[in-house]
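Collaborator request, handled under Task 6.
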Amino acid sequence: MRLITTALSILLATCCTSGSFAQSHQARIVVPFAAGGTADVLGRIIAQQLGVLNGNQVVVENRPGSGGNIGAEAVARGPTDGSVLLLGTIFATAACATIRTLRYR
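Structure tokens returned to the collaborator:
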């Protein structure tokens, strides 16, 4: 688990130190699964590391339901300034190609 956390921290540090990630306001990570699960714990670890790297508070928001599509829709319809991230699975990515009735595209 420590190796995964370290790898994600390095990845996020590389991606987010350019100053484009939530410069002046609170950031959110949307986890499209129920609170208390593995994805929620991983989201909170990532949020903590991002908060340390950027000096801003990062909030984890759980939006479970519909196999992750409710959370993905919340991110797709959210602000486009990079302050909202999705912690999803391969299903959230594949849903666009396989499900024709998605409300976000």
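The cover message to the collaborator said: "Helices lie at 2-16, 38-54, 69-76, 90-98. The mean pLDDT is 80. Please let us know whether this matches your experimental observations."
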